[in-house]
Amino acid sequence: MPVAPIPAPLDHLGVRPFCFYPPILNIEHNEWLYSKSTWSEMLVSNARTGMEIWIPRRFLGEISSVEDPVVIVGLVKELEYRAGSIWPHQRRVIEMPAAPASNVERLPAADLPAPIVGIRLERSEAAIGRLIGIVMVVAILAYVLMISTTRDGGFRLRAVMQSDTGLTARDDYFTVVRRLGNPAEDRWSPETGALQYRALLYPQQGYYVILLGADRKQMRYIGTLSKDWKTIHSVPAPGMAAMLSRLQKF
């Protein structure tokens, strides 16, 4: 009895474009279309250049929901395009040469009179005692400072988290404005990559609302970042939290 073919993980996307995460190295535009598949590989084509490549199934990971602003197809390994094929990327580690053994012979310590040695030992013990006391005082002050800073930082973080935006991956710019009002700043990322980002600053709440889309007409909410560009919230989609954490400030 013939065995039924394994369904392709990407065939349900149809003609909808998607992005790989992490992006495939040595390929500039990270926007793809599903073409066809075999039992071991899948053929995808670059939406901008038309280049076709085969991706082994074993490298494919989780796929985000089709309702997300951008469909993300996860890769279990970082891949690179080389010599017309896809290969696992291997990061080169440069080993530092071992330090040469010292050939310097140590000179024997000179014999010193016992009374002088005793005086030097007493002075060394007193100096070590003073050093230990200084270290303990510095450690106590650092601990107190860390506790106070952590409390203040935790209070500010809780204040931001308690002001829940209620935004989801289906919300666009107009939904954000209806919920939070007009932003104090409205920034766009440079139009150089396959994905476009938009940052809306709300200084009273203390965060940026981040929108993402394949172009500037299809931007959807993916999360919020603090004023110092730390992730506060991200939509529950594969790879979104990592994308926010690696997003460069613009």
Explain the overall architecture.
- This protein has 250 residues and is of the alpha+beta class.
- It has three domains: 11-88; 116-162; 173-246, no CATH class.
- Helices cover 26% and strands 26% of the residues.
- The protein has helices spanning 114-162, 173-180, 240-246; strands at 19-21, 32-37, 41-46, 52-56, 60-63, 72-75, 79-82, 85-88, 185-188, 196-202, 207-213, 220-226, 231-234.
- The strands form four sheets. A five-stranded antiparallel beta sheet has the order 9-10-11-12-13, sandwiched between helices. A three-stranded mixed beta sheet has the order 1-6-5, with no helix packed on it. It has a three-stranded antiparallel beta sheet with strand order 2-3-4, with no helix packed on it.
- A hairpin with a 4-residue loop joins strand 10 (196-202) and strand 11.
- It is flat, with a radius of gyration of 29 Å.
- The model is unreliable at 1-5 and 152-163 (pLDDT under 50).
What's the pLDDT, averaged over the residues? Answer: 78
- Rg over C-alpha atoms, rounded to the nearest angstrom: 29 Å
**Form type:** flat
Number of H/I helices: 3
Q: Give the terminus-to-terminus CA distance.
A: 59 Å
What string, H for helix and E for strand, traces the elements in order? Answer: EEEEEEEEHHEEEEEH
Strand segment tally: 13
Class by SSE composition: alpha+beta
How big a fraction of the residues is strand? 25-35%
Strand order across the biggest sheet? 9-10-11-12-13
